[in-house]
Every structure is written in structure tokens, then in C-alpha cells.
Amino acid sequence: MVKFLFSLLLVLPFSSDQPTKTRSTNQIDKVEQKMELIPYPKSIKKEIGKFELTGNFEINAPIELSNEKKYLTNLLTDILITLPANKLEVNSFQTNLVLAIDPTIPDAENAEAYQLKIQANELRIAGSSPIGVMRGIQTLRQLIGTNAYASTKQLAIALPCVTINDAPAFPHRGLLLDVCRHFFDKKVVFKYIDALAYYKMNVLHFHLTEDQGWRIPIAKYPKLTEISAWRTEADGSIYGGSYTTEELKEIVAYASERHITVIPEIELPGHAQAALAAYPHLSCAGGPISVANDWGVFKEIFCAGNDSTFVFLEDVLTEVMAIFPSEYIHIGGDEAPKFRWEHCDKCKKRMTDEGLNDAHELQSYFIKRIEKFLNKNGRKLIGWDEILEGGLSPTATVQSWRGMDGGLEAARTEHEVIMSPTSHCYLDYSLAAIDLQKIYGFNPIPPELEEKFHKYILGGECNIWTEHVPNEQNLDSKVFPRMIALAEVLWSAPKQPNFDDFYNRLQSHYSWLEKQGIAYGMESIGAQIRFEFQEDSIQIHLDKSLSNLTLKYRWSEKDEFQAYTTPIALNRSGILEVQAFKAGKIYGNPIKQTISTHLALNSSVTYSSEFHRWYAGTEKKNLVDGRIGSLDFRDGTWQGFFGRNVEVELDLGKIQSISKIACNFYQYSNSWIFFPSTVEVSVSKDQKKWSETRIFSTNSIDLSNKKRILPVEIQLNEKGKKLPARYIRFKATNIGVVPNGHEAAGQPAWLFIDEIEVK
Ligand code: ACM
Ligand code: ZN
Questions:
Q1: String of b and e for 375-394 (b: at least 16 CB within 10 Å)?
Q2: Confidence band of 25 (pLDDT split at 50, 70, 90)
Q3: Which atom of ligand 1 is nearest to the CA of 426?
Q4: CA angle (563 as vertex; 602, 572 as ends), nearest 5
Q5: What separation in Å is there between the alpha carbon of 400 and the centre of ligand 1?
Q6: CB atoms within 10 A of CB 452
Q7: What's the mean pLDDT in 312-340?
Q8: From ligand 2's centre to the CA of 341, what distance in Å?
Q9: Closest C-alpha to 441, from 398, 496, 393, 386
Q10: Residue 4 above 50 pLDDT?
């Protein structure tokens, strides 16, 4: 029986002004209304009454829960005042906490299942295993609420009586952290592990090696930390670093206390330029090679024909396994250009000796050899979906990133799958591409996957690649709050509450994030500009990204913003600027879309070459929707053609007087996007006789990493006179393959176009 010495013990939070009984009761009522838990538990049964958590607690736990007992003890002593014995009544003022292993709780077959039962005289967390107990402690941590983490400790915290039964939908719920493109020290990693724990994520996918830096010491190969960990930036400065073995062990231990698995990723055969800079004899051409100082996919990869490569990698993996006890080891496998292998005598000999038909089969041989080694050491291999190419290793787990198709194929052949498609899980992408709601709509099980294969989908991860994430604040703003949406999806799918419900609960989590020192970012960009094509007009809809926003828009910086109420007819050129407001305050940056009206607006377009579904824009209207592209090639206005030309015919509906055709192309060598070699147009009144053929040579391939837009304007009549035409044939010739001198030379090139303006 809990008895109180002072009436002020009920107050939450503890403050210097004298509390009253009435006030404390109000506080408790408030607690009872709020169950702002994320991820939302499977079942919550609220009961009458309350439980008093005080600093003078006793935790009753069996020996196998000593880790959880210690964790909970530390958690509570951090926030509660422990009164000295002489201030307590004899045998009173004890909070009774019980931690238990209980195989009779619901979903007990799931090691992460737990039951949190709060009664007036006892708080009990039972798990089917210590892991479940830890998940339950995290729920308690959220129930305690943010206020408890005040700078002053509390005397008591009131909790509502409740029974929560809970278990996750997916066993693999992770975050990939790239510490190579930019390095983050162990304190940041601890902060992330703790936030993962709070949101019941259970995997930190630790991306430790890259072209731009190697971050794990390997005793047998000291140059990996002496040379591979450091790069010389374009401005001459030196950037880099690595963890010590001791630090990595601390990270593993910190995660392990919270029952989070750290899965290390050692990239092979590609994304290995930093290692090859230190040990160039492991490359096909022998070097010299330097640690990369820009972003991209590089052709220097481990030589598959050289046995020393496998000796090196097995040595490395042996030391990696000694630090990381995880069952799974990630070996990358993505984005390995085959150029070097195709021109390497050793690699060619390996292909002949092993009866391999092409470089993809050689990669498959490479991965299978590493897989055998890991399996022999009792570990399992995870690789990116490229490991499907050339034949999948028998026991490999596939992490699907280029959409869900790789995962679909792997699951259908009874391989385990982790889903992290670029469409929903890439937190390095802008909010315009992936916002909170988009992630909340993620389902790691592809709808077309037959039920019997669902069990192979282990779960998902969100990935934070850090090319453009130079510091901790930047990292926080990209990961939060978006990661929290994924945490709920993976724990609760497919029965997660709706987005609005999640969004409302999330609001109360921001103060907790602040107290953790997490500089969280925005939830969405506020508004989307959506085009609706009707028979004879285009309507612009402004969709607010969150239900509690209002929107205003204007066509020019000189205009006043006006409230958006009904769709806007597209009948003028300009820069449409949309600003969202939340509770009367500006929410996020304005969204801008350059619009050009022209004679082909909304006309019918017949494609004789296919655009890629990843960059479809408004599909068959994209080239005539009036939207002009920005320097962000993922802004949705650009249409991408992969290894193909743009070949279309426009029908203006009737004969019009035209004088010129204008369009823009995009170039960004890093992403294999190049200007076309030529642009060709011809016009016709009747689709039979074609005339006024004009060819424009662009001749401006640029291998630098600059993002550029090339405006092309083709005058149809030299004298500037207009000419009658109804049909327009348009062809932009793709350069075909990525040019020589580029790391991905020979791979299909992208051609990007935004609009075909007819004037
Ligand atoms: C990846 O994003 N290259 C896995
Ligand atoms: Zn080779």
C-alpha cells in the first residue's frame, strides 16, 4: 500500500509554488486522457485509477532481467528524487515495480511482445523475453511523458491504470546511418541508438566503408585508418576520421543494452575506393587511387580475379565479426560498375576458369564466395538488390532499394527481404519527394506479393546517406520526424492508425526530441501543386500536406498573397508561389512553380519512346503541362528517358500559327544525366507532309558535377514569320551511354526534358 508523507508528492512537475490537491488531480486527469504513444500499441485497455511512481522505488526482477532492471533504475533515478530514509515513514512510500518473463502474455511467441500492466499498487512489465521487457520499458518511458524530463527532478509522477498488450508486425525495423560521406562521432551514434530504442526500432545499419572514407580500424591493415579514413577536399582541406575499436565496442554495448542490433556494412566489391587508395594492388589496374572527394559511383572496385582481394576481405570481415556480434553482416553489393572487370586479365581469367558468362555472373561469384565465408562463421549475408543480378546467393537476404521489385523477386524465391525503396525510405531526399505522410503510407509488403511469401519480408529501414549532410544538426533535421513515421509503420502495420491520428500524437513528441538535443526538421513542405487535365483546360489544385494548414498563393512577388479556396485555371505564365500557414503562422518555405502557357498546352502527345516510370512527371501530359523544371531534377517536372531518345508527336487540335519551339534539358554527370546530342523538329498541317525540319546540335557534354539546365529554342521560320501547323514531331537524341572519362562509362545515359513549348 502506498502512503504519502507530503501532499505535494502528487504534483507533476515539481515546482516551487505551493501546489494544491485540486491541481494535482487535474494533472492526473490530463495524463489519463493522453496516450500519445508512438508506435501505437496493439491494444490499450484503460482502467480507473492511478499509480504513483516515486524515486523510492523497488524493482522486483529475476536475474535474467538484470540488464532491464539496471536500465529502468537509471531511467527513474534520472528523473525522480529519492528521499533519504529519515524522510520516509517506516515501511511506506515504496513504489512497486515488477519486471517479469511471462510466456502467457498475448503474442508470446514473438520475442519482442510485452504486457505493461499498471494498477494502483503495482506496475508490471512482462515480456516473452528480455527484449519484450525492454520494449515495454520504452512504452513506460513514453507514458511518463516529456514533462518528467525537466531540469529539476520530480518527487512523483502519476500514471493512469492501464493494460497494454503489444508486439511488432515486422522483426526488422531499422535506420541506415552513413558515417562515411560525413563522419559522426560516437556521441551522435549514442543519441541515435537511444532514439531508435524510444521508438522501438531494433536495427542500426551502420554504413562504415565507402569511396570517401573508411571508418573502422582493422588491426591487420593499419593503412585503412591511416590513409582510407582521410580525404583531401577540393579546397585542399583534409576531412575524415574513424572510430577506435573500443568506441565501436561501446556502441555495440550501448545498443545491446537496449536490444538493438548494430549491423555493420562493409561495402564490396564497389564503393571501395577509400580502401583501394591504401591497398591499390587489390584493384584491377593497380592505381594510384585516392580517397574520393566527390559523390558518385566510381569505377575502381575490388578486383575479382585477384585472390589477395578475398584474403583481404576475409581478414577484414573476421575483425568486423569480432566487434559486431550481429547474426547479419551487410556486404553492400550495390553500384559496382563492371568497366574494370571487363578490361582486367585477372578478372577475365576468373570468368573463364569459373565458367562465368559475364561480369554480372562474376559479381555473383564474388558475393557467393563472401557468403560462404560468412556462413562458415555462423553469420548471414545481407546485400543490396544488385546481388540478384547474375544469380542470387542461396542464403542471402536482399535489401531492396531500387524500388520494391528486387525484394519482390527475392521473396518469391524464398529469400529474406528488407525493404528500403528510394520512393519511401530515403531520408536524404527532400521533403518535396518524401514527406512524413508519404512514409506513413509505406507498406513493406508489395501488394502483388502472394500471401505465402509475406513471411520473407522481414521489415524495412530508412536510409540516411550523408553526402549532403555535413553536420549533426543537418542529420537530425533530415531523420526527424520522418523516421518516427517509419517506426510506427513497421511496428503496427497493417493496422496502424490513420495519418491524422499519428500526426496528432507526434505533436507531443517534439518536446522530448528537443530534450534529447535533436534538431528535428519539418514534417512536409506545406503544399503540393497538382495539375488536373480536363478536356479544354488545366486546373491547378493546391493540396495542403496537413489538414491543419491553410494556403495562400500569388503569381508574382509584386502581388499580395490571396487565400486559396478553389482550383485555379491555368491561363497565365509566371511563377506561382504557394505559402502554407499553421495557426496563422508561416509554415515552411514557399513552394514555387514556374509556369509557361503556350500553344501546345494540354495538347495530345503520342510517345514513340518510353519515359522511365521513376521520372514520369504528369505522365503523357508532362511535356505540355506548362510546368518548367527547376535545378532539382526530382522536382516532378522533369521526364526521364533511360538510354532512350525523346520521340513524340504533338497534336495541337487545330492548325495554329507558330514560330518557335522551346524546351529545356538537364545535365548532372553524377547521376548520369546528360544533354542530348541533337534536337530535331518538323511540323505538318495534315500529318502527311512534314516540313521545316530543324536540327539543333547541343555538343555540350559536361563531366563536371555541376547541375545545369540547357534551354533550347528552335526558330521555325528564319524571317520570324509565323507558319501554320497542327502537328509537331520532336526528337531529342540521347547520347546513348555515359561517355568515356566518366566512372560509369558505357552504362545507359539519362536524358531529362521538362516541356515542349510551342510559341
Ligand atoms: C544505395 O542507395 N546505393 C543502396
Ligand atoms: Zn580485376
A1: eeeebebbbbbbbbbbebbe
A2: very low
A3: 2
A4: 30
A5: 9
A6: 10
A7: 97
A8: 5
A9: 496
A10: no
First-to-last CA distance in the chain?
85
Residue 340: name the closest of 356, 317, 363, 372 by CA: 363
What local confidence, expressed as pLDDT, does residue 466 receive? 98
**What residues contact residue 394 under an 8 Å CB cut-off, 6+ apart?**
368, 371
Residues with CB under 6 A from ligand 1: 334-335, 384, 401
DSSP, collapsed to helix, strand or coil, labels residue 415 as coil
Distance 311 CA to ligand 2 centre (A): 15
Q: 203 CA distance to ligand 1 centroid (A)?
A: 18
Contact 159, 121 (CB under 8 A): no
Query: Is it the case that residue 186 has pLDDT exceeding 50?
Result: yes
Average pLDDT of 613-629?
A: 95
Greater confidence (614 vs 483) lies with 483
Query: By three-state DSSP, how is residue 758 classified?
Result: strand
Residue 697 above 90 pLDDT?
no
**Alpha-carbon gap, residue 41 to 597, rounded angstroms:** 51
Instruction: For the chain, give the longest Cα–Cα distance.
Output: 105
Domains recognised in the chain with CATH numbers: 2-166 (3.30.379.10), 172-515 (3.20.20.80), 525-594 (2.60.40), 596-758 (2.60.120.1190)
Q: Whose CA is nearest to atom 3 of ligand 1?
A: 334
- Nearest in space to 682 (alpha carbons), one of 625, 725, 733, 652: 725
- Neighbour-count burial of 535, counting CB atoms closer than 10 A to its CB (0-12 exposed, 13-18 middle, 19+ buried): exposed
Point out the least confidently predicted range of 103-107, 131-135, 215-219, 700-704: 700-704
Q: Which ligand is nearest to the CA of 285?
A: 2
Most ligand 1 atoms within 8 A of CB, residue of 207, 266, 334, 420 to mutate: 334
At residue 9, the pLDDT reads 30
What one-character DSSP code corresponds to residue 153? P
What's the pTM value of the predicted model, to 2 decimals?
0.84
pLDDT class for 27, splitting at 50, 70, 90? very low
What DSSP letter does each residue of 167-210 carry, written as one string?
--S-SEEEEEEE-SSS---HHHHHHHHHHHHHTT--EEEEE-EE
**pLDDT (tens digit per residue) in 505-517:** 999 999 999 999 9
- Measured CA to CA, the distance from residue 269 to residue 313 in angstroms comes to 10
Other beta carbons within 10 Å of 246? 11
**CA–CA dist 365, 338 (Å, integer):** 14
